[in-house]
Amino acid sequence: MKTKSINYLIATVCFAFSLSVFSQKELKNKIVDFGTMMPIESASIYIKNTTIGTVSNSDGKFVLLVPNEFVNDTLVISSIGYKSFKTTVKDFDNSVDIFLEEDVASLDEIVLVAETRPKTGNDIMLKALERLPRNMPDSSYLQKGFLRHKERNKKEFKWLIESAITVYDSAFGSKSNENIKINVDQVRKSYDLRDVDSLLTYTAYLQQKANIRNLKARNLRRDTIRTSSLVKAIKWNDTRINGLQNLFEGKLNLVRNSSESKALFGDNILEMHQFILDTVLVDNDRKIYKIRISESKDYVNLKTKGIFNDGYKAEGWIYIYWDTYAIKKIEYQLVAASPEQKSRSKALFDTQINHKLVMSYMEYEGKMYPNYIYYETPKLVNVGAKPTEPRKSIEEKTTYDKNERFYYTVQEILFTQVILDKDKIQQALSQKWDSDIFSIKPYNKAFWKNYNTLLESEEDEQLIQDLTKRSSLFKD
Length: 476
What we know:
Layout: H1 2-14, H2 16-20, E1 24-33, E2 44-47, E3 53-55, E4 61-67, E5 74-78, E6 85-88, E7 98-100, H3 121-130, H4 132-135, E8 141-152, E9 157-169, H5 176-179, E10 180-192, H6 199-209, H7 227-242, H8 244-249, H9 269-272, E11 273-283, E12 286-295, E13 312-321, E14 327-336, H10 339-349, E15 353-364, E16 367-379, H11 394-400, H12 402-405, E17 407-419, H13 422-429, H14 445-449, H15 458-475
């Protein structure tokens, strides 16, 4: 009872703005490329000079709840490489699609400026890292956000969690494992069907917790294992692999943790990465470098305890503002490159991409704060053994069906408010924080009515509906 009260108090402190404003305007629409007529994914939709905002989904669609006190403010819809769309909140038309036109700056401009300006992708990246103490937050802050955590195979969702979270960070450059805190304030959805196919997780749990060796998942029978034991094993593995604390404190929090020991974007960044300048684009009337991330002489090694997370090459893009060298967006993935990692990834995951990350930042009061995070990784769940003889039963066919066997996890986080008020921060820190995204909490309808979330894509919406129905049947 005490924990519930504490969590409620933290939610009240950190989300007072959204809970107190019941009168609001709903903005929803679709963002489309003017030339190709294709939807624009991950476009930023926000109220100017605030952190109220969202991003468009894979269908180019969005929904944004705006408190009525901001109806006379400017709504900005922007995407890198396009001219921005701007209007007042009160004049926004929900019935007409938003068309954005391409907007590209000239790469030739680079040679027209002073000789001291960096001209190669590597030099621009090193300049951006040098400027991080100036561009990133230098004092403590809170952020409120929305988390969607989903696990699926190639056919269906097996697990879905949607939560409201609060993140505290003391400042850029501080040790993340000591200075980042996460609290789960409310839960909107929590459906989990994985206990019917989690023998591999249970096996790993017994091997590490009970020190039972030479144990194979194929030698276990689901009907002989208590569900409570499976749940305990699943929660152990969830926290070990997919906990939010791991995401924020780990090496893949590339910018925030660049000053940590052996960081991927640390002192030896060019030994594991090369940066090639592609072009100069425009983002909301500002020039921005588009730089390709490529492999270098050394493999990338995440050095995850208990997991072979070595032998990768880095690929992707990074976008850096021309004027301030602030990092706006990173699209980053780790691909199996060493023979050992290629073999492991193919056998266990049926993919060579082991980590896929997108991180974008929003500028607020002169500093760059996290805005949107997308993290995708394959996961060991139902690998099983390869058949040595023709399959005879439907059950065997399902066991070895690639669409059923191989799982991956996606975590999406949308941040919608930055809190810099020191009194509110201290009040929140004085309470107990609970970062367990996997625990079930009661649904608070009034809270979610006034809270900004990520709009599901049409495909995800259908899969979520199917999961909801199957979850109810499974519980019955």
